[in-house]
Structure prediction request, 643 residues.
Amino acid sequence: MSPLLAIYIVVSVMAVAGGLGTVLARNVVYASLFLLLSLLSVAGIYVLLFSPFLALVQVLIYGGAIIIVVLFALMLTRQGDETGSLDSPQKPLAAVAGLAALGVLIATIVVNKWPPSVDPEPVGFEKLGATLFTQWAVPFEIASVLLLVALIGAIVIARPEDSQ
Amino acid sequence: MNVDFALFIPEFVMAGMALVVLTVDLFLPQDRKHWLPYIALVGILGTMGSVFTIAGKSEELYGGLFLVDNFAVFFKVFLLAVGAFMVLASAEYVKKNLTRPGEFYGILLFSILAMMTMTAAGELLTAYISLELFSFSLYILASYAIHRPKSVEAGLKYILVGAFSSAILLYGLSLIYGSLGTTTFSGIADALAGNDDIPVAFLAGLVLVVVGFGFKITAVPFHMWAPDVYEGAPTPVTAYLAVASKAVSFALLLRLFAMAFGPAMDEWRPIIAGLAAATIVLGNLVAMAQHNIKRMLAYSSIGQAGYLLMGIAALSPLASNGLLFHIVGYSAANFAAFACIIAYENLTGKEEISDYAGLSRRQPFMALVLSGALFSLAGLPVFAGFATKFYLFAAVGNEGLLWLVIVAVAGSLVSLYYYLMVIKQIYLGEPEEDEPLRLSVSTVGLLGALGAAVVIFGVYPGPLINLIEKATAVLPMPV
Prediction:
């Protein structure tokens, strides 16, 4: 086993464990910390793929900004711990469906003939920026409009009714 | 890389007008807010005018990422028209029932921008991010009546199901990219045609994409969010969800399946045909049991999504024409029905089917338009629904999917029952009050225009079909 593969397995197990923890944790704060673990592990995968910039951005934006905002939001909005479970009686059924989908996807990934793998090449900042702002300019611009709409929408929905 | 930015003029105009609406709203005093819909309308009509600067061109920008062709132009003009009707239909409702009209129209214009880029996308990520922009706008609009718990519930349900379906869709896209190594539609088709056997991971990705889109177009069994959201959302937003959201999703699906997935047609045809049949049967059967008119139309629009899916399953030049034709006919009829329901809600605040008892005596014109719209949705002759269904079903039958056509005709017969129940209330029911309902001039104009469209597309569809043929001619068809 090459060292890269070993690191990949460790990082992936951490990412999946973090994801599971996010869903299974009873406490919302623990859940968001598990989410942080998962997101940081994904940054590790970017490092393995020789994309240091993406890894950095992943740590800064997801690990830093987003989890902090989630924690702030929890702190400012929580009115005591959530009592009562939101679980639906269909939980076992959902588990079976989820595991079946997982099984099918794992089988697919094992069986499939993937295109020959290429050795990852480091992507320079310059090339990344140039590609993002020329070739991918359209989706990039749409994404910025999307953020604007989300921002306006959040304010419209959250602002109290009588503050007109 | 040299890009002719003039080809983006319609998108630039629309984005600019959305910002203008949001900015003007800041400076308008409270008693002038009713100008906003007219500013939005000017923006939409201006954009529609600017679409004609790109008409007839055929260009692939950024290596097939953004397409300028007749198909995109056709849908841009059509969806802008839907947007214009949406603004007109919501003007009175928003004034009466919603606060913050500026953001309402601003976000509405952004959603139209998203639809325009969806019809032009020639690449998976561009299509996906446009779809997200569109969905986000709708999440906000669905929960816009924040003082009404049902609207908040609708928004929350919609955003949860929407996020879930987007995740499934995105996972499917990643499998397709991983197995074929490209995300452009034409690149996918080339990779599929070049492979001797189709990669398993591509098929898994395809299924996930179908599931993800299934949620967006309310195909059975991914429809369960629709009735609650349709009932809870502000009524104009429900109309928009039922018409614009379906129309643009099918435009994207048709382009995706024709341009990208065409070579794998044998694999996905049974899946889509099965989904279509389930959607037609369940949508129409459950619609019969509804007593709220918005819920009834929600289930009826699920059934209509099933007819539209047939056009994808058949995928031939004729079936694509039929699909576009049915999208236009369905949109006109459904919007006419919703325009009546919005106007009735503005006047009386009621939305149960039994509340429509004796409408013909209180407001004969509205009764006429609503009945015509419902007859068209059922597919009766003279109205658009008959011509569009006939064309679509015939084209699907031509492709050897006769069993699906039989299911669809049976579904249409069932749908006639619940549409007639409404019409029976309108003409034979005893009204609780006798006082005539007075419609504003703009509402009369709106209902008249939509009602006329329903009849004109039914009796004289020639010019429309000519345009549709030009639009679908750009799509490569599997042989």
Observations:
- The mean pLDDT of chain B is 93.
- Residues 261-479 of chain B form one domain.
- The two ends of chain B are 35 Å apart (CA to CA).
